Amino acid sequence: MNNKHLIKKIDFNNYLVDYNDILKKLEPNLKVELDLYKKSLMKKCFLYLALAVYSTFYFYWFIFIPLYMLSSWYLYRSLLKENLSNSEINKIEDKLVNIEFNKQLNNYQKEIGIINYVPQDLEYENLGLIIGVGNNYNNAERNLIKKAFELKADGIINVNLNSTSSTKLNGHIKKGNGVISSSVDITIHLQGIAIKLTK
């Protein structure tokens, strides 16, 4: 087929879209990050312990006790991985997955075809209407492509742009004189049809 629209089939075997699939791939990286995090806890332990010892030379016992307890707590948590809270582990996992997801999204953005009309010479499955919103065109386009990526779309057709604006008024009175300033916020809406080629 002569596809002059630059929309082509994308091999999604090269991509990981699902969060858990990405996390599984990053298991070795996660172990390294957790080890680094525990080392940072160990550094805090020694810092607070040093401050606690230093305070004893000046007889600041009221400072020594809380600092010593704090350093012991960091030491205990840095030695045992299982004592890291779920929120701490989830935060590290989210950080790694977001980095990997954005790398894949960058590659996908280079592959996906985007046109602003409905082609007549393509055979495709309609995956649905998607909308990307942002405070500028690039952000809106990125969010649109992200939604297409999550649907594993080969392209986006019939793309159109709308924008909305809102004015904020800010005022204050100084020595009887009122001063009013305004700012305009613009929101860009990009919408299109996500498609998957059938041939």
In short:
The chain has 199 residues and is α+β, with helices and mostly antiparallel strands. It has 5 helices and 4 strands; from the N terminus they run ααααββαββ. It folds into 2 domains: 1-111, no CATH class; 115-199, Hypothetical protein apc22750. Chain B (Translation Initiation Factor IF3, 2-Layer Sandwich), CATH 3.30.110.70.
What does the model show?
The chain crosses the membrane at residues 46-76. Keywords: Membrane, Transmembrane, Transmembrane helix. The protein folds into two domains: 1-111, no CATH class; 115-199, Hypothetical protein apc22750. Chain B (Translation Initiation Factor IF3, 2-Layer Sandwich). Strand 3 and strand 4 (177-197) form a beta hairpin. Helix 2 (27-57) packs antiparallel against helix 3. The chain has a four-stranded mixed beta sheet with strand order 1-3-4-2. 49% of the residues lie in helices and 27% in strands. The chain has 199 residues and is an alpha+beta fold. The longest helix is centred in the first third of the chain and has 31 residues, at 27-57.
Characteristic terms for this protein:
alpha+beta; membrane; 199 residues; Translation Initiation Factor IF3; four-stranded mixed beta sheet; single chain; transmembrane helix; transmembrane
